[in-house]
Amino acid sequence: MRFLSVMKVTFGRTRVSSRLAGLVIARSLSNATLQSERYDFGIAFDIDGVILRGRTPIGGSPEALRKLYDDSGSLRIPYLFLTNGGGIPESRRAQELTRILGVDILPLQVVQGHSPFKNLLNRYENELIVTVGKGEPATVMSEYGFRKTLSIDEYSSCFNDIDPLAPYKHWFTEQPFLKNNRPEVMQTKYNVLSDKVKAAFVVSDPVDWSRDIQVLCDILQSGGLPGKGVGDPQPALYFAADDLEYQAAFPCERLGMGAFRIALESIYNRIHHPPLKYTSYGKPNPSVFKNAEVILKQLQSYILEKQEEEIHELETIYMIGDNPSVDINGVQQTGKPWFSILTRTGVFRENGNHAQFPADLVIDTVEEAVDYILRKESSKIGVTIF
Ligand SMILES: [Mg+2]
């Protein structure tokens, strides 16, 4: 318990208080720092099917997360969310998770499927790009710094009759984006009718599959200018993830972005040659896990108030997920220092382990998973603080 009270002073939100505490606790502080440095582990949580189902917390997730903070609400164990979902900027997702889960979550702790799109800024910063998916895909890309970004809703509205089924889509009668961005304004602002689209980004799960497949086929086979025949080269196409299915609020799995990719690719390859070229991000791609390692190290340096160069590599990183082919497969491909924990609150519900992608540990809920981790890590250093 002594350790906990010292941590409160050292890493509390009001860092000034640690200065005021001054020399009186200097010795204790160094002991505390030494002990925290011995916690060389981090945790990555999947969200859908582990932390939340829809917007409802599951598996004791609020209680599990609270164990990673000290009594004053300051972070003491580096952890992040590693989700293939998205559709809103990381800062807004962090606020939303903070509200639902009752702990203070930093934008840095939210890694979404589309987060790696930031790395493509150099290539497309000033190029016309079209974004696809639920939520606010164009806002996500604008916040990453892309300057000529249109959602597929906005882009499609610039072309008369591009979607022959539009008159039958009564849910499209309200289009809030048109209040500020009328088609004629967008046509002029971005030269939509003459500027080629250089890339399309599927940021989150597409909403209107029939329109999106139609318009993406138009963009991709025309070389970036719908209605102007067939042209080369195919604009680049990026997917934030490739999940075939995921666990949402409905009792059984829903079709994800991977299902949309299969539909688009199958249709495109029937109407066009050469076949569709694309790049998919998200788990199980090992680059996602490598990137998470870097962020966890940054969080460790934030917790210990040290420069990143002074921080040791984490010895173990736990991935807690519900989807064997995405979460567990990704850990297996990445290897050390990752350790996989499969919960039974989402896609996976079986009694034993998964046959094709067996996890290092199978457990019922995320709270049990966190208890297991804290017990194991405490026993490693011989201090019972959890
Ligand atoms: Mg999941």
Automatic annotation (TrEMBL):
One of its GO terms (biological process) is glycerophospholipid biosynthetic process. Signal peptide: none annotated. Coiled coil: none annotated. GO terms for cellular component: mitochondrion. Pfam families: Hydrolase_6, Hydrolase_like. This is Uncharacterized protein.
